[in-house]
Amino acid sequence: MKAFVTGGTGYTGGALCTRLAEQGHQVRALARKTSKTDQLRDRGIEIIFGDVRDIDSLRPAMKDVDVLFHLAALYRQAGFPEHIYHDIHIKGTENMLQVALEEGVKRFIHCSTIGVLGHISNPPANEETPYNPGDIYQITKMEGEKLALRYFREKNLPVTVIRPAAIYGPGDMRMLKLFRSIAKGRFVILGSGETTYHQVYIDDLITGFLLGAEKDVAIGQIYIIGGEEYVTLNQLTTMIAHDLGVSPPKLHLPVKPFQWLGPLVESVCIPLRIEPPIHRRRVDFFTKSRAFDISRAKRDLGYQPQYDLKTGIHLTAQWYRERGYLN
């Protein structure tokens, strides 16, 4: 098939482009001119320069495309005004949907996030759990997801929504801080550590995307793609510590002061373009549970995670260790 991937220069998008190319598909990736594209080019992937916010740049990219994987997103980080999230996750998604409709794209795979469900008070949540976003990233991702489903209902665009759990694996840099702080014995748990966390190994997630593109039953549906198990933060940090050969984190601090300090520190640091040492999304990691039922993906798509959490942690830690990132 001819596949088009937005967000192809990112961690997940790059892994998806690689798998598609390895399977013999023709792969085209959207990239901004400032993005690093050498690795994608080396894999035989065609690069189209453009931006999801610029609809005119999307039309040449979607000519003769069979399957479109829309992964482009702005992940939560301090310093970006709210309208940027709106422009990328909502307006950018609408641009993608409109051009896909115009060009007759046969399948539109939209990457959302489990974050649209926010804190899971009665785990595990599933695809029918009501929306409950908790920040601007989650709110705008929710609106982008709703747009995609609306194009299916009202305009018959063959859309499938994939909601990944927390993505990790070799090459991922977002989990590095957690692994490194545990390796150095510096990780502090805020609160009880009994909130839940649900991850998905990168290879399993890519399989989920491809199954969503292949199965006709997936059209018009939402699928949560996660690992086989979710664990508490205490369990997760203990598993990482054991793999690294260090003692598990034992220090717990009350979470309330940090919940109060987060917005205050952000209000001082963000105008100065300084990354806040404490901010709300990091505190949310300790206070908001993430636990999901993946049975719909198993039933409809034949999805079956191949990497248990222990194996995934080991492979990720090994990748960090080999590159000296844990020193």
Automatic annotation (TrEMBL):
Source organism, top-level taxon: Bacteria
Any one GO molecular-function label of the UniProt entry: aldehyde dehydrogenase (NAD+) activity
Annotated PANTHER family: NAD(P)-BINDING DOMAIN-CONTAINING PROTEIN-RELATED (PTHR48079:SF6), PROTEIN YEEZ (PTHR48079)
Protein name (record): UDP-glucose 4-epimerase
Pfam families recorded: Epimerase
GO cellular component terms listed in the entry, alphabetical order: cytoplasm
Residue span(s) of domain NAD-dependent epimerase/dehydratase: 4-226
InterPro entries given in the database record: Epimerase_deHydtase, NAD(P)-bd_dom_sf, NAD(P)-dependent_oxidoreduct
Native species: Candidatus Hakubella thermalkaliphila
